[in-house]
Amino acid sequence: MKLAPILDPGARKPGPKPAQVDLHRVFFIGTAMWLAASVICLVLVLCGVDWAFKSLIVCVSGMIIGVALLTWEHFNRWYYRRLGNQR
């Protein structure tokens, strides 16, 4: 283990270039997966499965967080896309 990069910041290798990402796609797919899981849990609740109601609450919470993240991404897209274009 080399201690020079720890003791002397000038001896460090340059960090990797930031990756260009599309958070809209990631948040949308995640929210869609929570939606599919909530439909399954809703069917189980209607069938009378005891534990399914708590799972349905978790799935609906996941969808709410996903919609909030999609809203955040819509208003902050310029900021995180700009970071990926830096060299």
From TrEMBL:
The chain crosses the membrane at residues 26-45, 51-72. Keywords: Membrane, Transmembrane, Transmembrane helix. This is DUF2530 domain-containing protein. It comes from Bifidobacterium catulorum.
